[in-house]
Amino acid sequence: MFLISDNNHDLLLNMEAIGLTNEIINKRDVLIKINLSRPYTKNLPRTDMALLKTIVEYIYENNGRCALAEGANGYLKDNLIISGFDNMLRHYGVNVVDIDLEDCDEVLSYGEQHYIPKCFQDYPVRIAVPSASKRKDMLYSNNIKLFVGAVPRKMYQCTETEIAQEAPRPKIHQNLHVSIANLLHAIQKFSPFQFYVNGGLAYNENIGEFNLVKTFIGNNAIDLDCYIYQKYFNDCEYPYYLDILKTRLNA
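-> structure tokens emitted (251 positions)
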């Protein structure tokens, strides 16, 4: 299920309609997984800071509190400050969780070992706020692929130098589509994410940067990724990890 809004007022109504408001009020502690391993540069969109600001403000207005999480090799707070989020961090006392510095638990997923930060379980409400993109020689990335940055890079190194130079978590790239699907399952097994919010700046390799004029909030990463792909990226290479996940659901 997902709901679509044209403005912030409608987004807030959709947060209530989908059950996020009730979760915040009853459970208080919220983890937001963002895409900010490095600050925004041209044609490399990150989580939209205006959208993130709206979500964080709403959490605190409903007596919640939150943490922002991303694997940024120790630089997540710096990245947030560079991105203009410093005032929000100070005003609300938002916690910053750099995943690359966190302890983790091992989770077995379809025979593959994954390592999920232990602290995720400290936050009973979990939201993913990615940026949608498809860059040349890269996979379509949105809600599902966001979780590649949800695991500590130190646990995903390998001896293949060529791969290691290309990606911060080279083990995932050895069997990329399968590992992405397995990682989503591991995340949902250990610390399920209940909500996904998509909006703001996006990138399509065939047209460049563009804005998702509408904002989407859903409770199913697969459904929302399929919709965003078909609507905005269907001229790009298809992400076969979606088929793996859909096949597993129907098995």
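Strands lie at 2-5, 29-34, 65-70, 95-98, 104-109, 112-117, 125-129, 133-134, 195-204, 208-218.
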